[in-house]
Write a structure and sequence with these properties.
This protein has 379 residues and is of the alpha/beta class. 42% of the residues lie in helices and 16% in strands. The chain has 15 helices and 13 strands. A seven-stranded parallel sheet has the order 3-2-1-4-5-6-7. It has a six-stranded parallel sheet with strand order 10-9-8-11-12-13, with helices on both faces. Helix 9 runs parallel beside helix 10. The longest helix is centred in the last third of the chain and has 20 residues.
Length: 379
């Protein structure tokens, strides 16, 4: 690489709302070496992530679509790649990859594809699942390199996709930001939650795959055994209205607080006693990592990437995905045992400190960029 020459990279992401992949991208942009790389971000919707990137001084474009393989947008993406002088593309997730791959290949630009959880799942209708498998096979076979955020995510791909290969680079988080020793705002006072309450926290998209309705039903069972519980649900999504209705139907008025997505996640985590992530599947859940970094006792479902974080009865509890009774029992067990909560929290924080740092993650990704850039330059 020539002295002072910066590599122009397009980082593309499916949406501007903040979820796991978007948090990953924000960490990457916070830590990327701006002396060697000149990143530009493409999001396919507006949202708070776009605003944060712009405040960080990252040039960010929005080409609106909520569809993967939206051929109407491919020419627009090609024009963007040319106008920005992009030399490499890093796509985060299926929608991002499927809507940039054609344009990048037309221009001879290598694409790196990070899989933040697969678009196909065992609970889908057979035809839908087959179509999504074919889509992922098409994408992963035509990229320069694939990245899996967990070993189990890579194995899931190998089990289903033909000739799938990837390197594993685990998600990392900012350990200074998510540090229980910091000073935090009083979220309980802001939201009118009693200081004596045992707060169960959910921070995620309120969509079927995160199982918010299962959590509300489980919480309704748990609060019968532990009346001092309070559920705080932070996030938005297509099941939000149904979640609010279900809480009312379960007679949980005054016991459940709903909030939209917030930017002050460390403050919110500080207010919690137990963090719950009842997903049906995960790549490597960043929200769970953030809670563990804050020393919170966690409950999560026994699914793919989550298994690489939660060691049952050592740094958290595992529950069965979609099982109300299993999740309710785990909530009650932790709610009734403060010593166990403290032990799990200590062990969780120690694991994150040792294994999941955002700076280390970024350096590994930068090494991939340089390798692909040099390979292209030598052609």
């Amino acid at each position: 690489m020539k002295a002072q020459q910066k590599i122009k990279i397009l980082e593309c992401i499916r949406q501007g709302q903040i979820g796991g992949g978007e948090s990953h991208l924000l960490s990457l942009m916070e830590n990327i070496d701006r002396e060697r790389f000149d990143p530009v971000v493409l999001s396919f919707t507006e949202g708070p992530m776009v605003d944060r990137l712009k405040k960080m001084g990252i040039k960010t474009h929005v080409i609106y679509t909520e569809k993967p393989f939206d051929v109407r947008k491919w020419g627009i993406v090609k024009d963007l790649l040319q106008s920005e002088g992009i030399e490499m593309v890093h796509a985060h997730g299926t929608r991002a990859c499927s809507n940039t791959l054609w344009a990048a290949r037309k221009l001879g630009i290598p694409v790196t594809y990070t899989v933040h959880g697969w678009s196909f799942h065992a609970d889908q209708q057979a035809l839908v699942r087959r179509i999504r498998i074919l889509g992922e096979e098409y994408l992963t076979s035509r990229t320069a390199l694939n990245i899996s955020v967990s070993a189990s995510n890579r194995q899931s791909g190998r089990d289903v996709l033909k000739k799938f290969e990837s390197v594993v680079i685990s998600n990392g988080i900012n350990r200074q930001k998510f540090n229980p020793a910091n000073v935090f705002r009083d979220i309980r006072q802001e939201l009118g939650i009693s200081r004596d309450a045992l707060v169960v926290l959910f921070v995620a998209r309120v969509t079927a795959h995160k199982q918010p309705l299962t959590l509300i039903r489980a919480f309704g069972e748990a609060v019968k055994a532990v009346p001092g519980l309070h559920l705080l649900m932070v996030g938005d999504g297509d099941e939000k209205e149904e979640a609010v209705r279900l809480a009312a139907e379960c007679g949980l008025e005054g016991k459940v607080t709903f909030q939209s997505f917030r930017q002050d996640v460390p403050d919110v985590l500080n207010a919690a006693d137990i963090f719950v992530l009842p997903s049906l599947w995960e790549g490597l859940p960043i929200g769970l990592l953030e809670a563990m970094a804050m020393g919170k006792a966690v409950i999560a479902t026994d699914v793919d990437g989550t298994r690489e974080l939660v060691r049952d009865k050592e740094n958290g509890l595992m529950s069965e995905a979609g099982n109300v009774s299993s999740l309710a029992g785990a909530i009650v067990e932790l709610a009734q045992n403060g010593t166990l909560r403290e032990q799990f929290g200590r062990n969780a924080r120690k694991m994150v400190q040792e294994e999941f740092d955002s700076v280390a993650m970024t350096r590994k990704i930068e090494d991939i960029y340089l390798s692909l850039y040099n390979r292209r330059s030598n052609l």
